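[agent] plan:
  1. take the single chain provided in the ticket
  2. run structure prediction with default settings
  3. attach structure tokens to the ticket
  4. add a short note for the reviewer (M.T.)
[agent] executing step 1
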Amino acid sequence: MSAPHHGASGPNESAVARTTPPLKKLSKISKKLAIKKERLVPMNDLPLDAPPVDCPPVYECHVTMKPLKKHRLSITKRYFGRVTRGLMRLMPEKSAKATNEAIGSEYTVDLTGIAISCDDSKRRLIFKFKKESRDIGPVNKNEYDTFKEMIQKHRNYRQSAYRNKKEDINELITANAYQSNGFSPVIGRPANTEQDIDTAKLREDSRGNTIAELNEKVAKIINDIKVIAIEMKLMRKELKELIRTVQSGKTLPTTESKEEEDDYDSDDSDEKIDASTPNNNQILVDAIQKQKSKIYLSEEIIEKKEEKPERLMESGELEKIQPRKHRDQLPKPSIAGEELGLRQLMAIVARRLPLPISFFEPLTMLQVLCEELRYSGQTLNRAISAYDPLDRIAYVTAFAVSSYSGMVCRKQKPFNPLLGETFDYVSNEGWKYHAEQVSHHPAITAAHAEGLNWEWWQTLISTPKTSWSGVIEATPELPVRVRLGKEDYCWNRVKVIIENASSTAEFRKLKMDGTMNMRCSNGYTSTIIFRKDRQTEIYGTIMDNHGVSVVKLFGYYDRFLQKVNQKDYLFEAIPLPKNANQFYGFSQFACGLNEFLSNDEKLSAPPTDSRFRPDLKALENADTSRAIEAKANLEKLQRARNETIHKRMWFEQRQDLMTNTTLWICNGRYWQAKEKKFKGYSDMLQLFWYVAYLSNLFYTLFSISI
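[agent] step 2 finished; step 3 output follows
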């Protein structure tokens, strides 16, 4: 009887066993859902009948914040939090870079204008903003109770202050700052350092001032603005009269001064210019040149207030005078770097958007090319005096290698020259250089230099390629040319690689890679190998006109180049200054490229010279806002111009027989025109003086402080 009973109960037990696991899973899921529903507890507001709340102490801690998203992965960002007077400020933590954690922007949160929920199980707070919710909690979970308590106290205090209308001037200024910027008082935009400094000064000044004093200051500012507006109207009227006079073909009155230092504010003289000799364009150019000289004279007077007036030197002293030296340091250190994500970098490249100003150094590509000639004195000057053709090609090879010596610590990008922009440089070693931007799309730079029985020229066309790994590669397309007496040399430039391009400057790496092949018209050749995995180390060979290797070369392109088994260097680089990293990695030579040695040199320069660019001057003075404004104005004027009808002034395209390529060659007219201070060149572009003038005017207008 027992056997049948046992057999009948077997299937029921197996069915129960099969249904048990799903029931357990359902029970676990239901428990989780129940916990999830009970997890969030809203933070209580201050009761309506509550008495005024005293201001709690300032609370600081390290917090993490991430978007509250249910079905998407989100990045947790680490901040240093500071809660004061009901406002929570979240600042990116600098130490987060060492732990590879994501760093966000700076935020300010008004604790009264949002709903806050408490998640005690995960020890975090949920801040519900208008567009999304944020998960914010202390890094140290043991501080959660204190964090929650201080948020509650500051929230209640600010609610009490609003209800009792006892907000102090500090709170009112903060609230007005948010509303004036068009943002909700709940969460502000990423902080601007300069604006924060100005706001802090405003808060300190406002605490001890009454409303009447503030009204007086506002009235004074309004009066100052009215005076400036009247001056601008007068200037506009004078400019219109000048244009009408030129269009009508009448003569223009000249302005002469008895003393040179008072030229910028002298009255009009009685002399007149004969209208029959110059054309209308030349009259307008002369008038613009006068206005330009006044602007630059006034700028120099402002920059050199304490400089004593120079006396006239006697003939004996003029013979003993030494060449004036360029500066060896920029006026201000480099500005703080800015990090871009790879997506942002690729979007900038694809859409041709402007890079942040912190990605630039205060030089243009025209000036950077001039750096390649720094060691021409110890290479090309020695090559021209060498009798052996082997020594000559060795020195020219050293010159080609030395062109990369100043690029090791350079992590920022030079400014793109405008179409028609120029630059010139005269060295104390007997060589002179000038360059012109002959094309904008694609960017083409033509450069030429001449020294003691040698010439150097090149046409730089470089199309950088950006990869998703954050690496930028640029390989110049055309060769470099040198003429040494009756011998011609040519060689190719190697690839330039920038790694971690989207990071800040200190994390970027610049490397060279490729083989540089040099060829001489006498049959000698040389080869130098650059390898990106060997830092700056290079090696190569020299072959005679029979193709036999006769000399081996070794060195570092940032230090020296020498023949193997010989002590003498073919070239030796000058070490960088100890503080070079604080000044964009510039050498002493690079620091002096963007300056005029005298006022006479400034007045004799063409209006297209890079040293007149207001964005360069502002950046090297660490004035980022002024640099951004000037750069945007120049780019706007550039887009408005027609490149197809642009006239190249100092270079023309010719076929190079040695390399069988088309290069931009110097036409030989630049230095002759410079000796005449470019008189008679009415078709020259007025690139920078008007933008510089507007920048100075508006800077004066908006720099009025309370």
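[agent] step 4 note for reviewer: The mean pLDDT is 78.
[agent] ticket updated
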